[in-house]
Each structure stands twice: as structure tokens, then as C-alpha cells.
Amino acid sequence: MPHVLIIEDSYLFGQFVSDAAILAGARTVEVVETQAAAETAARRKAPAVVVADVRLRSGSGLRAVERIVADHDAIPIVYVTGYPADCDGRLVAGGMVIAKPVSHDTLRTSLSQVIAQWRRSMAH
């Protein structure tokens, strides 16, 4: 069952994303607020999907994702950010960029697509 790691430094938005991920089919979620916490969380439990903000108060969501992807097989990354241009050239297979603000329905639908894609890849 898919575990989703959420890297988001706004507590309320992190909960918003967590709720959307559960409704989209995530079995478990973990929300972290810093680059260091994200890297530690991914070492502790390998995520099936990472949802990351780009700019964090402590560290960088982009750098956290680079390190997480380097340590694991291809993990779909969903950037949810107010700075979508920062993601240019940084997407890995199966990833996407969602610009903030975003509706709950749009986020849930997008995460459903990514989780479904992950499930298909695990079936092969």
C-alpha cells in the first residue's frame, strides 16, 4: 500500500494535502516541515510518492527531493508550489507540478492519478 511523504512547511496546508492524499488512495502519510526532516523520514520509511513544496523556511524541497530520489528507485514527485517555474527541468518520470492555490478536488484527482500510476508500476 502506498506511503506518501508530504514536505510542506505550512501546518494547515500540510493537513490539507494529507487529507487529499488519503482520499486519493494513500495508505499512510507523513507530513514534515523541513528538508532535514524529509530526508530522515524517507530513510525511515521509503515513500511511494513524495508531495513537496519547493521553498521551505528551513532548507529546500527541491534539494530534499533530489536526495530522496538518489537513495530510492524512481519515486513520483508532485510539487505543489507557489513557484512552479522553480521546478523547470526537475521532474522525474510520473511527476507533476501543481501551482498554488489549488482546490482540494484538483489536488485529490492529481494525487489519485499518481498513486494509480505507482500501483500499475508495482504490478509489473
UniProtKB/TrEMBL annotation:
Where does the source fall among the domains of life?
Bacteria
One Pfam family per UniProt: Response_reg
Q: Which GO terms describe its biological process?
A: phosphorelay signal transduction system
According to the UniProt record, list the residues that bear 4-aspartylphosphate. Answer: 53
Task: Return the SMART domains for the record.
Answer: REC (SM00448)
**What does the UniProt keyword field contain?**
Phosphoprotein
Keyword Phosphoprotein carried by entry: yes
Start and end residues of each Response regulatory domain: 3-115
- Please identify the protein, giving its name as recorded: Response regulator
Q: Which organism is it from?
A: Sphingomonas liriopis
